[in-house]
Amino acid sequence: VAGWGKLRGELLNKVMARSGSSPPMSRRLARGSRKSLRMNLLRRLFSGRPGGPRAPAGWRGYAIGDVHGRLDLLRLLVHGITEDAAARGPANNLLVFLGDLIDRGPQSARVLEFVRTLRLPDFRIAALAGNHEEALLRILNGDDDLVQTWLRVGGAECLKSYGVDPEQIRS
Fold first, then answer.
1. What is the pLDDT of residues 14-32, one digit of tens each?
2. Number of C-beta neighbours around residue 66 at 10 A
3. How many other CB atoms are found less than 10 A from the CB of residue 119?
């Protein structure tokens, strides 16, 4: 994308400045040095910090997001989470679905039903709506202007999972 290199550098400088990192990068830095600075920034942003967010004593949290209609992968994740929780010992476990359960993949309807009916011993389960669920809810509530965009970003696959031909809606 034309101009992305310059924008990327500006964005990185802003992120570093807001995160309390070293002063903005100079264009004089060698390419390897810039890459090293970026990697260090990402490590700091995504690593645990002393005094950072912690679960209350006796609680353990798990999160799943961006399933996008892939029941096969969702089942594997849930299985892995239950195995991890069992291996770690007793706790109050929380499993949060972070949204974007639907669209793109072939099994949106089955994913929603799986999450809706999921019961795991020693787990509390919560599901949040993502932008894909929000789009579907807006369409179901009469926002016809959003239909064509939604169909292009995975809504067609969602409709198919419910036995609806997207071509009926495209026209």
1. 766 665 555 444 444 555 5
2. 12
3. 6
Name the pLDDT band for 33 (thresholds 50, 70, 90). low
**Residue 52 in tokens:** 């950072």
Question: How far apart, in Å, are the Cα atoms of 63 and each of 10, 22, 94, 95, 149?
Answer: 32, 32, 8, 6, 28
- Percent helix, percent strand, percent coil in the chain, to nearest 5: 55, 10, 35
The candidate with the shortest Cα–Cα distance to 12, out of 46, 32, 39, is 39
So what's the pLDDT on residue 45? 66
Helix (H, G, I), strand (E, B) or coil at 61: strand
Are the C-beta atoms of 65 and 98 separated by less than 8 Å? yes
Question: Model pTM?
Answer: 0.71
Three-state DSSP class for residue 127? strand
Whole-angstrom distance, CA of residue 131 vs CA of residue 146? 12
User: What is the DSSP secondary structure assignment for residue 1, as one 8-state letter?
Assistant: -
Q: Is the pLDDT of residue 72 over 90?
A: yes
Amino acid of residue 165:
D
CB-based contact 135:129 (threshold 8 Å): no
